[in-house]
Amino acid sequence: MSIELLKKLGAFALFCLMQVLVLNRIHLFGVATPLLCVYFVMRFRRNYPKWGLLLWAFFMGLTIDSFSNTPGVTAASLTFVAALQPYLFTPFVARDSADDVEPAMYQIGFTKYLSYALIMVFIFCLLFFTLEMFSFFNWLYWLECVVGSTVLVTLLIVVMESVRRA
After folding, report:
1. How far apart are alpha carbons 112 and 91 in whole angstroms?
2. Taking a C-beta distance cutoff of 8 angstroms, is the pair 80, 65 a contact?
3. CA gap 57, 60 in Å, rounded
4. Whole-angstrom Cα distance, residue 103 to residue 118?
5. Are 78 and 38 in contact (CB under 8 A)?
6. Tens digits of per-residue pLDDT, 9-54?
7. How many Cα neighbours within 13 Å face the side chain of 141?
8. How far is CA 45 from the centre of its chain?
9. Are 35 and 149 in contact (CB under 8 A)?
10. Whole-structure pTM over 0.85, yes or no?
11. CB neighbours (10 Å) of residue 52?
């Protein structure tokens, strides 16, 4: 086993436990839920195999769904974001950079990383809450959940990223 695989397994277990045991019980103002599991998918390096990224994301979503009573919502949302991750990260990296550059604030800069995180989190939250509510009957509440959770998760990701390499 490589060190990278062990690190991924440790991060997988940590994010799953943190999401299921702590973060799923937090609902700020009744609308903002910290869905930090998307940060796991965001951290994959640039040339990571796409099939591996999809498998990691699907199994993380399936694990979280198993314990959160959200049948398939997190798995579908994380898998969709994982499918988009290589294409969304490429515009934020210089062409002459290394092939295995990791999406990190210290690697690509604060504004580029913030833009990357905001796009990834918004797509994830948009799909997550659309699948969870499965109705646009109360579209204002849906919009509040998407925007509130996007802001909260992006803020948490920036804080974690700045603490990670401080």
Report:
1. 9
2. no
3. 5
4. 13
5. yes
6. 999 999 999 999 998 888 888 888 899 999 999 988 888 899 999 9
7. 8
8. 14
9. yes
10. yes
11. 12
Name the one residue in this structure whose structure tokens are 């809450």.
129
Q: Which two tokens stand for residue 139?
A: 């579209």
Instruction: Determine the residue type at 79.
Output: T
Tell me the two tokens of residue 67.
């314990």
CB 74 within 8 A of CB 64: yes
Q: Which pLDDT value is given to residue 104? A: 83
DSSP at 44: S
Q: How many separate helices (H) and strands (E) can be counted in the chain?
A: 7, 0
CA distances from residue 45 to 52, 102, 104, 141, 160 in whole angstroms, order as listed: 12, 4, 9, 35, 17
Q: List the structure tokens of 65.
A: 């769904």
- Are 113 and 104 spatial neighbours (Cβ–Cβ below 8 Å)? yes
Please list the alpha-helical segments (H only) found in 35-101.
Answer: 38-42, 50-68, 73-89
> Coil, helix or strand for 32?
strand
Tokens in use for 39? 């940060």
Paired tokens of 38:
């998307």
